[in-house]
Design brief:
Helices cover 73% and strands 3% of the residues. With 344 residues, it is mainly α. The chain has a domain at 119-336: Orthogonal Bundle (MetI-like fold), CATH 1.10.3720. Helix 2 (34-44) packs antiparallel against helix 3 and helix 10 packs antiparallel against helix 14. The protein is globular, with a radius of gyration of 26 Å.
């Protein structure tokens, strides 16, 4: 086991190294640059020269190429040549290895502090949504399997698989339109009413604002877990020991909930172990639609404006969680099913 874990960790480091290279090159090739967008108006107003901007760009890890147009006017553009990007990447990587995540261009704060402060909100929303997803999807999947090709199976499968196919921005906007604007039952966004409530009242106000986004996240996730549960339950129902249990005269309830359900959970544990990126990474689109100040929305806003330090750190954070979740899924499978042996 120890040798297996060490081997997987070394492989994970190699994967993360490759991911970081791809991410940095893609971010540098984006058609927007935060530093240029911020200081270009000052150049146009005559408050700064291109030489001044070049010195500022170097402080931010960029290389500015200055040239004159046909009229002799000085202009500049970010140098996105392979050599310039490669140099910037190694500078970022060296700082990242030393634990220096950099300073966010947009928020002007250390990146690690931004992620740490915004992660709690996203984790809370995602965790509660995951609990509801499990509570709803697993019983539905088992019920559908026990009534294979029946009306309940067809109706439930079509309904939730259709909902799963909805884009999150579409369902989110529809929910806001129906329940917030038309009916007025729930607030349409934010984390609170802005009344400065504290204690139990403040907590209740926050929960009231989070009902709709948690509903959207839960509804969009039920279909896939339900189908996975249904498929695995059908495999267990057709096993020889289930037919033996029925032949011994056990009631259908005992067969399903004592034997089938227990063995159905084995592959489900591995699926749930791989949800780490979703729990800690936030739901970028959903948080943006509902204007929730979580890590997903913050990263989305940073990405739109070319905030490379924050975008890089956030995506590397998600990549690391994905690798850890995959490793945990493998280990959990061996724990819940003694028949499985992890080979080196």
């Amino acid at each position: 086991m120890a040798k297996y874990i060490i081997k997987r960790i070394l492989l994970a480091l190699l994967v993360l190294f490759g991911v970081s290279i791809i991410l940095y090159f893609l971010l540098r090739m984006m058609p927007i640059n935060y530093v240029m967008e911020k200081f270009l108006p000052q150049i146009n107003q005559g408050n700064m020269t291109w030489e001044d901007l070049g010195r500022i760009m170097k402080l931010y890890g960029f290389d500015l190429v200055m040239f004159k147009d046909e009229n002799g006017t000085m202009l500049g553009e970010v140098n996105n040549s392979f050599g310039s990007i490669f140099t910037g990447y190694w500078q970022w990587l060296w700082n990242f290895i030393r634990g220096d995540m950099g300073q966010s261009f947009k928020y002007n704060e250390p990146v690690n502090e931004i992620i740490a402060s915004k992660m709690g909100v996203s984790f809370g929303i995602s965790f509660v949504s995951l609990i509801f997803q499990v509570i709803i999807a697993i019983p539905l999947g088992i019920k559908c399997a026990c009534n294979q090709y029946g009306k309940f199976d067809y109706i439930t499968t079509v309904l939730f698989m259709t909902l799963t196919a909805f884009p999150s921005f579409f369902l989110g906007n529809m929910v806001i339109k129906w329940f917030a604007e038309d009916l007025g039952w729930f607030p349409s966004g934010r984390l609170d009413s802005g009344l400065g409530l504290t204690g139990i009242a403040g907590f209740g106000d926050m929960i009231w604002h989070l009902i709709l986004p948690m509903f959207v996240l839960t509804i969009l996730s039920i279909g896939s877990l339900m189908r996975y549960t249904r498929t695995n339950t059908l495999e267990v129902l057709n096993a020889d020991y289930i037919r033996t249990a029925r032949a011994k005269g056990l009631s259908e309830g005992k067969v399903v909930y004592k034997h089938v359900f227990r063995n159905t959970l084995i592959p489900l544990v591995t699926v749930l172990a791989s949800t780490l990126p979703m729990l800690f990474g936030g739901a970028m689109i959903t948080e943006t639609i509902f204007n929730i100040d979580g890590i997903g929305k913050v990263a989305y806003d940073a990405l739109k404006e070319g905030d490379i330090p924050l975008a890089m750190c956030y995506n590397m954070f998600i990549a690391m969680l994905t690798v850890i979740g995959t490793l945990l899924a493998d280990l959990m499978y061996a724990v819940v099913d003694p028949r499985v042996k992890l080979s080196n």
